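name: query_chain
kind: protein
chains: 1
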Amino acid sequence: MGWNWVQRIQVLNDEYKAEGIEKYDANQAQQVAFTISYGIGINKLLYLWAYQLGRYRRKYSPNLVFNLVTFAWVCIAALVGLTLLNLALLKGVPDQFTAASWGPISPIVYSLSTFTPGGEAGGIHPAGQWAYLLQVAGFATGGLLIFSVGLSFLVTFFRERDDTATQQLIDELKEEARKQEARFMGEYEVTVNEAYNRLCDLRSNAAGILTFLVQAIPSDFLAEPGPGPEGSPRL
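structure:
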């Protein structure tokens, strides 16, 4: 927005501001319409860029709470799976374990303990190859869970940082659009929307492209409060 050519294409040349002009001829009117349409288009493009960035941020930015819930669900599923396997082996091939006495909760406590190295709990101890194999599977599962949660927090940290930067860019784009509107009003003494409506009434060739931009941005997004020239309606 700071480039000179971007500023020039939105402003009328001095020849179109001469005091002696009472009515534009066809060529002059067309040039004026194009210049105004550039100003409207730049304003809408800034808002559209901000809106699309906001959609991306809401759709793809991960949520820490969601990640925690997902991780908890995976832990529960892994624990239930290992408990069922250990319980089946305990009942089907009891000599795979040494357990003087065990109750309904013992397989759960034992399976949970296998998530750590050499875990034994609940009065159950592995004694056969199949039991040792399930113990190794439990340890591997625990290691993967710890690695997964660490990776998840790391990714979430970087994504949240990017999310903050994205929101800052959205705010800057909207603020630049408001400043551009203020300059537009200073040049043409009408709001961007009023100028767009007048071009539509005149059936300007540029109205079709501008209509696409206008319709691509929800009105509630444009209606968010922000700084603007005194007395000027928000877009």
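note: The beta strands are 97-98, 125-126.
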